[in-house]
UniProtKB/TrEMBL annotation:
<dbReference type="Pfam" id="PF00144">
    <property type="entry name" value="Beta-lactamase"/>
</dbReference>
<dbReference type="InterPro" id="IPR012338">
    <property type="entry name" value="Beta-lactam/transpept-like"/>
</dbReference>
<protein>
    <recommendedName>
        <fullName>Beta-lactamase-related domain-containing protein</fullName>
    </recommendedName>
</protein>
<feature type="domain" description="Beta-lactamase-related">
    <location>
        <begin position="23"/>
        <end position="391"/>
    </location>
</feature>
<dbReference type="InterPro" id="IPR050789">
    <property type="entry name" value="Diverse_Enzym_Activities"/>
</dbReference>
<dbReference type="InterPro" id="IPR001466">
    <property type="entry name" value="Beta-lactam-related"/>
</dbReference>
Amino acid sequence: MALETQADPVDLGFDPERLRRVDSYLARYVDRGLLAGTTMAISRDQQLAHVSHLGFRDREAGLPVDGNTQWRIYSMTKPVTSVAAMTLYEQGAFDLNDPISRWLPEFADMRVYAAGAGRAARTVPAVEPIRVWHLLTHTAGLTYGFHHAHAVDEMYREAGFEADVPPGMDLAGACRAWAELPLVHQPGTEWNYSVATDVLGRLVEVLSGQPLDEYFAKAVFDPLGMTDTAFWSDSEDLAALYVAAPDTGKAVPHPAVGQAATRPPTFLSGGGGLVSTAADYHRFTQMLLRRGELDGVRVLGPRTVDLMRANHLPGGADLEAVGRPLFSESPFAGTGFGLGFSVLLDPVAAKCLAPAGEYAWGGAASTAFWVDPVERITALFFTQLLPSSLHPIRQGLRQLVYQALI
């Protein structure tokens, strides 16, 4: 199933000439070899106003990007895991304030980093338990080893957790290992991008009694007709993965990491493990835009989606105020965080054209999406370049989409 333009952009409020600036912008990256290939899809009022495919899904093999291309979406998996968790919330499986140790006892009696390094680090007891909403908002005090910003990050790396998990470890084993490490901060007090959504995925497994891939299929993929989204793919439609060459900045293949998505994983990562297509993820964003329903099938209730896209950071603050100063998929100023995605609070502070209320996230291979309930817009961008911080593509695309809206 491939995406196709469904309406005249003019009828949807876009200036076609201005909209073409989106592709011109992306073509500059592709033509210079900084990106191998891209897909962009923009919709308004649930109709696709613009779909484009540029360059190659596998440049070295001469295979072009098309509507069937599969992409490693990495952290764009997180909103899927969050939606899956909230389907269980709607069934009464948990309350957002529940301590996760009720189902994951390894997270009882957590300790919080205070000072020192490595095994000599001094810790203090957590003042309160990690709660479900802490996982959904990255306020649990967990971290990522790849941050290189805190002593606990180093502890994660020493335990084998940097960009991945130790070989052969499953999700349950990873959670047990993370629970043995101290937290970066007291739960619920700060925002720190982390393995929290992977722990949430494990909670989904325990609450549902199913492996994460099976519950995703039952609760999200099958109802939405997302037939090409999974934790791995052996299809020739799977795009090659690239990194930037140190000397030229041009995209070069990274098969050592890219091959991980071509076989069934032991570790089902709710934080970053999915492969998907533009068409599939478009259906996911349309469900969100429609407040939980698509084509007569309801995945979530409208009040649940409204709660998810509200800012849940302590005191209603933005990431600039309560977020740890590290890499993430979003600018910090004027941006809050809901139950699974960033939430735009103040366009002036964020220095962007999008309206307050837009919610979004991205992935490590430079993919991105946003849902705008005010202007009724969804936008998707796919490519395969690690890491996503190399180029300012996401902010540029948001700027170009909104300047075309007249």
